[in-house]
Amino acid sequence: VIFDAAAVAGLLRTTVGQPTLLDRAMGYTANTSGTSYLSDPLAMLDTFHLGAPTMTVMADRTQPGGAGTVQWDAEGVQTSAFPLVREGMLADFQTTRESAAWLAPFYQGVNRPVQSNGCAGGGSTGPLVHWPANLQLEPSTDDDTSFDELVASTSRGMAIMGGPVYTDQQGLNGGGRGDITYEVRDGKLGRAITGAEYLFRSPELWKTLVALGGVGSRAHFGTETRYDRYAHSVSAVPAKFREVTIVARGQR
Amino acid sequence: MSGRSLLRSLPKPLVETPFLSHAECDALHRQLVALAVGGGETSATITSEWVGATTWARNRAYVTQDLRRTVVSVARTIRGAQGRAATMRLDPDGLRTAVQAAEAALLFEPERVEVLDPPLIDEPMTQPKLWSDATYHLSAEARGTLVRQMIEPAEAKAMLSFGELKVTASGTASIDSLGHSRYYPTTSVECSVTVRDAAGTGSGWAGVNDFDVTRIDTAALASRALDKCLGSRAPNLVEPGHYTAVLEAQAVADLCVPLMTQLSRLAAESGRGPFADSPGRSKIGQRVIDPRFSLRADPVDPDGAFFPFDPWTGTPYRDVAWIDHGVLRDLAYERSYALRALGLDRSLLNSESFRLVSDGAATSVEEMVTGTTRGLLVTRLDAVELVDERSMLCTGYTRDGVWLIERGTISKPVKNFRFTESSLGALNRVEQAGTPTRVFRPGYSCVVPPLKVRDFNFAQLSDAV
Question: How far does B162 lie from chain A, in Å, by closest CA?
Fold first, then answer.
């Protein structure tokens, strides 16, 4: 199944962006927006395989024009770009000055300073919150791979174009449907399929990632978190997954 | 003049309040009128509130807030073109900037005949009881004591408690330059608690909102959330599919909320939404749900009183039966639509607060379980989204406790589901209904009964706890 950049952005937002907010992962938002499938941050950092080795996701509040971009966050911490997922492995969480200390044993173990990575937000009319960074799915190193080429290398499959992605409160199980879903036959887009939905379990989905679009196929999207509506941006490239469960609405 | 000296120049309120009085709102409005240029009308919606909130997580108070906030939204109307701007600055510069922004915005608006006439703000307004001194005096210290009492039972069982106790006292005014001035002070409390086990295999929730803290049994909420957590640990897997569902009142409310957004006569007569009939006609007069049920909204409902007027137009909310014994009776419309299409000269506005009532004897949740051969008991529904307006098909997740019912007893906790169900469809498949109770819906009042619904579609499994 090939997801276009818009559909991949939806997946990143729900399955990587929200679950790596550290207060959420530690349960601090359990009574409101929910928790995270990355529920044991200290044990999971640098050990939990969140996706295929080709998957690297950067959090970057310095990205020019990003909806979550600031020079200093709400606690005065200078923002920077840092990996959340490095070659498929959970590499870091989005932290504030307070929550970074919760990961002190990990940071000290890998000889990194225990400091916020600049994801504090709010504060003017309410308490400080974890503000989602702009997310960036690193494109394939092959600059030229486009959505069309991902389709061309597929003999039989489907192409999901945009559309909503929903997940449970932990970002674990979810699904979605394209604004348009095409059948792919012999490297070409075929007829549009109505009523098709895809289902996934986040880490398993990202582990079946087989190919990504190149930097030329990158697109940027503004988005917001579901419950609190905190704005941030997501940059994504088209992606090809094998073994995605597709159901027609109302039947398996 | 600085902000501080401005506030000193305002009339002194009878009682010192952490939010603006009616006289202070009127004084602000007079300043807006004085700043307006170019004639026309100047109206303002002023919301002024004090918020005291205590949030706790992992058995410890986490954030305590004491917030005072006033938002002035000014509308300038000239020859039926209207521009609006809002500010939180109450000093003369801030107010002037807002008035100028509203006047700049109206240049891009069309002249509309329906806003030329003043809204009928003279309609009688009800006086719901929405003020509680006990709520108003719930200080950070008092909240801390209540919160500690809510955490203790969970901590004693080695569970983790999370929650929020939030009180608000506010004054909301809607004032125009034709001499209408409406103001209503209210208090509100929101209390919700989640209890989880440290391993994350069980989660329970309970919550309610009201205007009066003395009507909320915080200890009972804490104990319900704890019991649900303990009883929901290590959930089992049961196949997704259609089950008889015993929905607790909160779950019923969660399912019905999207329906409240669809009560629009304009939408229905334009062919949109679940209440559209043949072109140009709504389903008013037709049966849309089980005839035992009525969907009502009354600002002076003793269990679920709500704010008495629309802050944007000053129009009072009326006592309305949207659905009466299963038959759609009314849909909301604005004054512009009333004048243009209905030959009426007043609006019928939807507050989105509601009461769902049923005829006949009430059945308790326990009795519903006893009478169920095989089904699921559901605490609440989360992230409910409308998929299809026409059929009211919604999707979302169960959360904080689902149990399998076998041969009249609760047999075991089960994993959460994603459901795909129509709220109208569910309200046509009700087997039993309980006593309507107040549920958790911040900013609104919502009184609904627990329901036993057959063939509820629990479409997919979810591993999230």
Answer: 6
Which one of A22, A31, A226, A252 would you mutate to disrupt binding with B, by most B Cβ within 10 Å of its Cβ? Answer: A31
Q: Which two tokens stand for residue B402?
A: 């689902």
B124-182 pLDDT per residue, tens: 899 999 999 999 999 999 999 999 999 999 999 999 999 999 999 999 999 999 889 99
pLDDT tens digit string along A25-51? 999 999 999 999 999 999 999 999 999
Closest-CA residue of chain A to B225: A31
* Helix (H) / strand (E) containing B6: helix B3-9
Residues of chain A contacting residue B163, judged by C-beta atoms under 8 Å apart: 31
User: Coil, strand or helix: which one is B300?
Assistant: coil
- Encode B14-43: b = buried (16+ Cβ within 10 Å), e = exposed: eeebebbbbebbbbbbebbbebbeeebbbb
pTM for this predicted structure: 0.92
Detail the DSSP E strand segments found in B224-298.
241-247, 293-297
**Which strands, in side-by-side order, build the sheet including A57-60?**
A89-90, A81-86, A57-60, A135-137, A231-236, A219-224
**Residues A98-156: pLDDT tens digits?**
999 999 999 999 999 999 999 999 866 778 899 999 999 999 987 789 999 999 999 99
B193: contact with A, CB 8 A cutoff:
yes
